[in-house]
Write a structure and sequence with these properties.
The structure is a single chain. Helices cover 50% and strands 10% of the residues. By secondary structure, it is of the alpha/beta class. The chain has a single domain, classed as Cobalamin biosynthesis CobH/CbiC, precorrin-8X methylmutase (Rossmann fold), CATH 3.40.50.10230. It has a 6-stranded mixed beta sheet with strand order 1-6-5-4-2-3, with helices on both faces.
């Protein structure tokens, strides 16, 4: 474990000490060999649940894809405002947008969820982007639809919606697509995991780990 590698969000001596201690404990538990290990560590720290490390799934070298997208200043798109609020705003030059509220007229017209409508409204911006879904399976399913028909190709999809209606199915579908992704098995997920995954990629971008 590199003792100088801290969370970019930790800016005071106490916060840095907590970050280092937490990382040290979790890296012993999970390992510290790869970028994916670092994302697993961050998700475990965010949830306080070591079992999360076992159900995370990485397809198509997502950490590398995310780092390249950040190098390019690619847009980051979150499903809801709570996810957007959690994404660290420093260490990158990417604009962050939210799907919910971006297509409300379309939602009313089509009778679909506000997050799905936001995906459809912003689909022209999504090529090469980073998409972060923590709560809305309907948004993830809409993204999968657009990828399948060749309308959209994000650089990375972090798809970890939580819940019992379409959450597990949307994540399974994401894993079948030829797009770099981070997902989780089953019904678990949520804002803390989604935010932890993207923030660790931002952290690696801002503070390379040697």
């Amino acid at each position: 474990m590199d003792q100088n590698y801290t969370d970019i969000g930790a800016t005071t001596p106490e916060a840095m000490a907590i970050s280092r201690k937490s990382r040290s404990m979790i890296s012993e538990l999970i390992g510290d060999k790869s970028p994916e290990d670092r994302i697993r560590q961050r998700c475990v720290i965010a949830t306080g649940d070591p079992s999360v490390a076992e159900i995370l799934r990485f397809c198509g070298n997502p950490a590398d894809a995310g780092l390249k997208a950040l190098d390019n200043g690619a847009g980051i798109y979150a499903d809801i405002k709570m996810v957007e609020a959690g994404i660290v705003k420093k260490g990158h030059r990417s604009a962050i947008k939210v799907f919910v509220g971006s297509g409300d007229g379309l939602a009313s017209e089509k009778g679909i969820t506000r997050t799905s409508a936001g995906v459809l409204a912003l689909q022209g911006e999504l090529n090469g982007s980073i998409i972060v879904i923590g709560n809305a399976p309907s948004a993830l399913l809409t993204i999968c639809d657009l990828i399948e028909v060749g309308k959209v190709m994000p650089r990375l999809v972090i798809g970890v919606p939580v819940g019992f209606v379409n959450a597990a199915e949307s994540k399974e579908r994401l894993r079948t697509l030829d797009v770099p992704s981070i997902s989780i098995l089953g019904t678990r997920g949520g804002t803390p995991i989604a935010v932890a995954a993207i923030n660790e990629i931002v952290n690696m971008h801002a503070r390379p780990h040697h």
